[in-house]
Amino acid sequence: MRKVNYSVLDLAYVREGETLNQTFKNTLDIAKFVDEIGYSRYWLSEHHNMQNVASAATSLLIGYVANGTSKIKVGSGGIMLPNHSALSIAEQFGTLDALYPNRIDLGLGRAPGTDQLTASILRRGDNLVNYDFEAEIKNLQQYFSTENKESKVRAIPGEGANVSIYILGSSTDSAFLAAKLGLPYAFAGHFAPQQFYQAMDIYRSQFQPSAYLEKPYTIACVNVIAANTDEEAHYLSMSMYQGFLNIISNKRQPIVPPEKTKLELASQEQKYMLKEMTALSFIGSKASLAQGFDEFISESKIDEIMISTNIYDQKAKRKSYQIVSELFR
Length: 329
Known about the structure:
The longest helix has 19 residues, at about 230-250. Helix 6 (about 170-180) runs parallel beside helix 7 (about 195-205) and helix 8 packs across helix 9 (about 270-275). By secondary structure, the protein is of the alpha/beta class. An eight-stranded parallel barrel has the order 1-2-3-4-5-6-7-9, surrounded by seven helices. The protein is globular, with a radius of gyration of 19 Å. Strand 6 (about 185), helix 7 (about 195-205) and strand 7 (about 220-225) form a beta-alpha-beta unit. It has helices at about 20-35, 60-70, 85-100, 115-120, 135-145, 170-180, 195-205, 230-250, 270-275, 285-300, 315-329, and strands at about 5-10, 40-45, 75-80, 105-110, 165-170, 185, 220-225, 280-285, 305-310. Helices cover about 45% and strands about 15% of the residues.
């Protein structure tokens, strides 16, 4: 299998019966573990108004994880930029970079990361019909630049910070933008895989070298659940599938163990949507995953695999990350 970097996307999943304090401790515990076994980065994603996800205050959680780890890069996968001003994000991530030099990533997306009502509140009633994502990214880059020291508005902390910016996306629109700006590109294949291959082709063919990146760099975020046997992995995956079914049926609930899932209640339409949503999922033993990843990496030519692992049991979750590390190391 071709060597690629391997990383983690974490949403700080809330388990049934668990306090938020324990949720965050679990996040840090996993981050420390993957830091020790060779993972490249640990990203946390901005979501709001969801009972099953606790990563709303994303930059705070990034600081918590960065403080508790030593080598691994920590960042956002992503910050939903329309929910914030470019200046506030420059200040937040400039602060993080000052505290944890050369370890902070800033992945940027343009989706709301929530429902429309919550997004409207976050954006103070502005529906952002004419929002210019490209312009706001450039504003952010300006705040990070040392050239901005002559400006009347400066990001302090932020100015001169060494924060790597990534464009996140789940459609071809983001591929065009990442290519145009000459920035690395991460695709959300873990929940929106339909346009993955088309987006990657667009990004590579349209890529324009920049001061930030000489050649295309691609990250594919996919669902991965590994275990000692295929049967065990598929059993553990029931929690993940229930989580996605809850999204489809608009019933956001904390993550439940496999024995408490109710996947059999899904309608045929929901089952079809579930299959479409999870098409880029790798579930099985080490041998099964080795074959699946070998084919996927060869076909997609991606530079990095980012792993989303929604397993209820924390020991089984650690084991899954361990198996993946043994595959890619």
